[in-house]
């Protein structure tokens, strides 16, 4: 369904995110004819580039990103939509040029996408206001991270909030735009099968894994000030946890969904210093191998000593009736053995076995939601081993592969989210109170780490993380799901 004509103003237009994600996402939306009429993409950055030079840069990246979906005719029409304006985000230069570029915008939807460092969000919004560009209908999109702690998140939210009303602000967590993450909502709320089992009565524990094979490479500068807890857990992993744990919202509506997620964030058991020591493992990768090739360690890439974690595993509890006593084990890391994001729901064992001991072990049911790659849902269950012999039990699985079932291209998360902004639908974006509730929970962990100043546990690149992370779950008589 086509969206209304728009002007997408992308600050940080020459940056990695814009070139790698935003422009390719808009290209795909254009290719699918969702972008209509006189819609424009106005890239903004500090460099004094000509429009042609910018378009050439986009083309170079786009070909690599969209692969076989690239075609010259689509590109030519898409390139016509692209403009470039050089603006100094923290100074005065360029703002009149941006105003002039937007002057003929007419009644189009106006979106400012801030794909910049978060300390520029406030200054850019102030300048937009001073230049008279922030109209009551325009929207602003903020990329994560929103700050580095609660105070800085509040400051950013205040600064942006002084220019834009909350309903104009779209805080992106791109995980919420992933097809498989939205599918969690369908799994839970468009099927009646799971909901009666979705509580401590039937669920033993939940695991959320977001493992990457990449290292920090050129992002070491940013990453070293962040670390895995701020970069991944505060946002992506907690959002996933919310979608798994929240109560059914009244309807698929921006406030109903976000109210329920907020309740989960507020019910997270606070991590006091002893909990931080017993329930969290931090790791940092050393040199090793990734897919058969030698790769340097984090400190080699960074070039100096650092205690920043590139891996974290946590045991988290939700203090409410539904989840009391059900641990949520979360883990995420760079330079792991596999790229895999998945949620594993482990059900309780059968209360009593009717089978003789030699029938074999009865594994508890496990529901795996594969977020990426090989997107799908798998239910592990016990079956009878085929054959005329005695009754022996064997695990098997029901397997739903999205690629095989639907046979369509899996759109990138940004494609959905960028169009949701134009449609004025913030359901899959984070509200201010959610971001701040997540920081409120994360902050004591950061403070304890800082106070103790202990180095993270080393792990060899290309492995599943430090041994202590395995011990974290095995201590409870459980194991990480390693079927990937
Ligand atoms: C980003 C993090 O938000 O998410 C990156 O800053 C991380 O460090 C990325 O690599 C992972 O996203 P995806 O979509 O590749 O799983």
From TrEMBL:
<feature type="binding site">
    <location>
        <position position="339"/>
    </location>
    <ligand>
        <name>substrate</name>
    </ligand>
</feature>
<dbReference type="GO" id="GO:0050661">
    <property type="term" value="F:NADP binding"/>
</dbReference>
<feature type="active site" description="Proton acceptor">
    <location>
        <position position="236"/>
    </location>
</feature>
<dbReference type="GO" id="GO:0006006">
    <property type="term" value="P:glucose metabolic process"/>
</dbReference>
<feature type="binding site">
    <location>
        <position position="174"/>
    </location>
    <ligand>
        <name>substrate</name>
    </ligand>
</feature>
<keyword id="KW-0560">Oxidoreductase</keyword>
<feature type="binding site">
    <location>
        <position position="46"/>
    </location>
    <ligand>
        <name>NADP(+)</name>
    </ligand>
</feature>
<keyword id="KW-0521">NADP</keyword>
<comment type="similarity">
    <text>Belongs to the glucose-6-phosphate dehydrogenase family.</text>
</comment>
<dbReference type="GO" id="GO:0005829">
    <property type="term" value="C:cytosol"/>
</dbReference>
<dbReference type="GO" id="GO:0009051">
    <property type="term" value="P:pentose-phosphate shunt, oxidative branch"/>
</dbReference>
<feature type="binding site">
    <location>
        <position position="334"/>
    </location>
    <ligand>
        <name>substrate</name>
    </ligand>
</feature>
<feature type="domain" description="Glucose-6-phosphate dehydrogenase C-terminal">
    <location>
        <begin position="185"/>
        <end position="481"/>
    </location>
</feature>
<dbReference type="Pfam" id="PF00479">
    <property type="entry name" value="G6PD_N"/>
</dbReference>
<comment type="pathway">
    <text>Carbohydrate degradation; pentose phosphate pathway; D-ribulose 5-phosphate from D-glucose 6-phosphate (oxidative stage): step 1/3.</text>
</comment>
<feature type="binding site">
    <location>
        <position position="212"/>
    </location>
    <ligand>
        <name>substrate</name>
    </ligand>
</feature>
<keyword id="KW-0313">Glucose metabolism</keyword>
<comment type="function">
    <text>Catalyzes the oxidation of glucose 6-phosphate to 6-phosphogluconolactone.</text>
</comment>
<dbReference type="InterPro" id="IPR019796">
    <property type="entry name" value="G6P_DH_AS"/>
</dbReference>
<feature type="domain" description="Glucose-6-phosphate dehydrogenase NAD-binding">
    <location>
        <begin position="9"/>
        <end position="183"/>
    </location>
</feature>
<keyword id="KW-0119">Carbohydrate metabolism</keyword>
<feature type="binding site">
    <location>
        <position position="178"/>
    </location>
    <ligand>
        <name>substrate</name>
    </ligand>
</feature>
<dbReference type="Pfam" id="PF02781">
    <property type="entry name" value="G6PD_C"/>
</dbReference>
<protein>
    <recommendedName>
        <fullName>Glucose-6-phosphate 1-dehydrogenase</fullName>
        <ecNumber>1.1.1.49</ecNumber>
    </recommendedName>
</protein>
<feature type="binding site">
    <location>
        <position position="231"/>
    </location>
    <ligand>
        <name>substrate</name>
    </ligand>
</feature>
<dbReference type="InterPro" id="IPR022674">
    <property type="entry name" value="G6P_DH_NAD-bd"/>
</dbReference>
<feature type="binding site">
    <location>
        <position position="144"/>
    </location>
    <ligand>
        <name>NADP(+)</name>
    </ligand>
</feature>
<dbReference type="InterPro" id="IPR022675">
    <property type="entry name" value="G6P_DH_C"/>
</dbReference>
<dbReference type="GO" id="GO:0004345">
    <property type="term" value="F:glucose-6-phosphate dehydrogenase activity"/>
</dbReference>
<dbReference type="InterPro" id="IPR036291">
    <property type="entry name" value="NAD(P)-bd_dom_sf"/>
</dbReference>
<dbReference type="InterPro" id="IPR001282">
    <property type="entry name" value="G6P_DH"/>
</dbReference>
